[in-house]
């Protein structure tokens, strides 16, 4: 398939520079001198990727991307400019008008990565479009990207939620604005999807008035970057006033009989459910005999299911369900185990425990606390990374830091280096760490680097500005997350009050190609020369490790070097450690 790329800029020299940069690619390159010309091209041609300047006569780049989305919604839209309102840009990005922004002057290696990524994503969107057209009009379905941002939605889903597709696009599926799903469920769904499996289970969506709309949902991966979500809204037990009144009656009955919540664990022989499609068929057959008020869940194993009930009527009918299942000719024989919730238990917590979901936050009062070892260029351990910002309180951090310091003093020399990723943590969570850090520094020198997102670093919110002041006061080095994916180029990053960067995972992958290795190496060397520390985490295989050594990366971590270990196991990496 021929790839068509549209270059839009009112300066011919910029278009020529882009042409030279892309000359090694076998792509059809189209040109436009302003936004109106670009729209004409989009109406005539099937454009896979559009690269546009921001400041142009007649129509700026953000406005062009907004209109291009209407004319050619499956064109990947990349905004390229040195002059842009970052607040307007972020608004356009969150709305889905702009897929990527690259600041001028650009780096050829990074921009080429971005355009090639656009080609890949556009191809996938094209396949998804064909797939979506094949869905019946009665299907309630939507498409998200790998970060669970909704990109497409079917008319049936929009009708059920009483919301337009435009308003759904840009929302995170697991955000409180979209669903009543918790963090634990997000982690479980993500785990299964990233393993290439289809997740099946109960999912509660929220309509435009924030009312709950329970449904069964199947979520399946579409390539590495997208997820297809198909809902069975007819399974909702709250779809009609009549059902609501029935639930009210059930609640009254439950209060009289005081029956506890219960669940039926159903297990088929593993050899009878050899693949995910067989598991999906069983789920559908089981769902057809569920009674009102009974919810069916898929367990982590494809041959196991759980049917749960929490009101008196549906709990009492669990036995009827077991009998109906045994009498159903479609279903093979299965073992069934009934579980009843303790009368004083929280239903949601009890149910998640039965489903095998890990709802427990790691506590530093536990004997074994974990860290991710971080290594230097020559294989020596330099420090540890923790992912617990947002989970730990001050007392937890005191315990964790004390244990790390004690272990480090016993086996290593020099100060402890601690790295924390805070891009998903609130300011309150970060502040839980600071007093514990000062107490621990009384025992031993500790150097702390905190990884922040671009948005955190550039935020002009008073709370964020105050937090940055506190980080400076506590002598904490700030690093920007995922260089190569952020909006900022190297020149802009060097102007920030930070001490280092972390590389986006695809950066090293791209550097494995010989034609990119030289340019990427020069870019990283420029950052090195300006005193920036470069950290490459999540290194999963030896080829990336070799590339990181060639690029002389300062800090390295990932499964190819070491998985997370307990703090007591850090001695494995000490200079005097012995094997065997």
TrEMBL record:
Keyword terms, alphabetized: Phosphoprotein
Residues modified to 4-aspartylphosphate: 53
Domain Response regulatory per the UniProt entry, residue ranges: 4-119
Top-rank taxon, per record: Bacteria
InterPro entries: Bact_response_regulator, CheY-like_superfamily, EAL_sf, Sig_transdc_resp-reg_receiver
CDD domains linked: REC_HupR-like
Keyword Phosphoprotein listed: yes
Keyword Nuclease: no
GO biological process: phosphorelay signal transduction system
Protein name: EAL domain-containing protein
Species, as recorded: Thalassolituus maritimus
């Amino acid at each position: 398939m021929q790839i068509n790329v549209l270059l839009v800029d009112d300066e011919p020299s910029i278009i020529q520079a882009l042409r030279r940069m892309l000359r090694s690619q076998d792509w059809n390159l189209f040109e436009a001198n302003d936004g109106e010309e670009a729209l004409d091209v989009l109406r005539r041609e099937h454009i896979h990727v559009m690269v546009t300047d921001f400041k142009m006569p007649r129509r700026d780049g953000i406005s062009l991307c907004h209109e291009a989305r209407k004319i050619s919604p499956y064109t990947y839209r990349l905004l390229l400019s040195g002059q842009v309102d970052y607040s307007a840009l972020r608004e356009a990005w969150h709305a889905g008008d702009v897929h990527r922004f690259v600041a001028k002057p650009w780096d050829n290696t990074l921009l080429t990565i971005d355009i090639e990524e656009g080609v890949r994503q556009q191809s996938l969107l094209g396949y998804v479009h064909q797939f979506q057209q094949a869905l019946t009009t009665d299907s309630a379905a939507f498409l998200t990207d790998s970060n669970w941002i909704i990109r497409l939605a079917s008319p049936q889903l929009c009708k059920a939620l009483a919301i337009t597709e435009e308003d759904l696009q840009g929302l995170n599926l697991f955000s409180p604005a979209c669903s009543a799903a918790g963090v634990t469920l997000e982690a479980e769904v993500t785990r299964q999807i990233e393993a290439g499996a289809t997740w099946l289970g109960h999912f509660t969506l929220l309509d435009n008035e924030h009312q709950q709309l329970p449904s069964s949902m199947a979520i399946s991966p579409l390539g590495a970057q997208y997820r297809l979500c198909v809902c069975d809204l007819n399974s909702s037990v709250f779809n009609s006033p009549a059902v609501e009144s029935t639930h009210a009656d059930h609640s009254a009955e439950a209060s009289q009989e005081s029956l506890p919540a219960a669940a039926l664990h159903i297990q088929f022989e593993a050899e009878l459910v050899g693949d995910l499609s067989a598991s999906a068929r069983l789920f559908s057959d089981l769902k057809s005999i569920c009674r009102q008020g009974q919810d069916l869940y898929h367990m982590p194993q494809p041959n196991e299911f759980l049917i749960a009930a929490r009101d008196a009527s549906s709990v009492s009918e669990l036995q009827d369900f077991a009998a109906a299942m045994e009498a159903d000719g479609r279903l093979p024989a299965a073992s069934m185990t009934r579980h009843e919730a303790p009368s004083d238990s929280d239903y949601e917590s009890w149910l998640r425990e039965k489903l095998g979901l890990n709802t427990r936050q790691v506590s530093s009062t536990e004997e074994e606390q974990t860290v991710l070892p971080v290594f230097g260029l020559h294989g020596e351990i330099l420090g540890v990374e923790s992912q617990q910002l947002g989970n730990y309180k001050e007392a937890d951090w005191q315990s964790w830091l004390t244990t790390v310091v004690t272990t480090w003093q016993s086996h290593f020399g020099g100060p402890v280096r601690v790295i924390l990723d805070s891009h998903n943590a609130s300011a309150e969570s970060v502040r839980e760490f600071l007093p514990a850090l000062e107490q621990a520094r009384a025992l031993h020198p500790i150097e702390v680097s905190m990884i922040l997102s671009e948005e955190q670093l550039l935020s002009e919110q008073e709370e964020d500005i105050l937090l940055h002041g506190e980080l400076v006061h506590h002598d904490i080095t700030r690093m920007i997350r995922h260089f190569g994916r952020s909006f900022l180029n190297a020149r802009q990053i060097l102007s920030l009050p930070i001490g280092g960067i972390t590389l986006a995972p695809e950066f090293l992958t791209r550097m494995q190609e010989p034609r990119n290795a030289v340019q990427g190496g020069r870019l990283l060397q420029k950052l090195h020369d300006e005193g920036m520390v470069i950290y490459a985490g999540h290194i999963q295989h030896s080829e990336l490790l070799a590339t990181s050594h060639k690029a002389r990366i300062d800090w390295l971590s990932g499964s190819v070097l070491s998985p997370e270990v307990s703090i007591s196991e850090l001695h494995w990496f000490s200079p005097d450690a012995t094997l065997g």
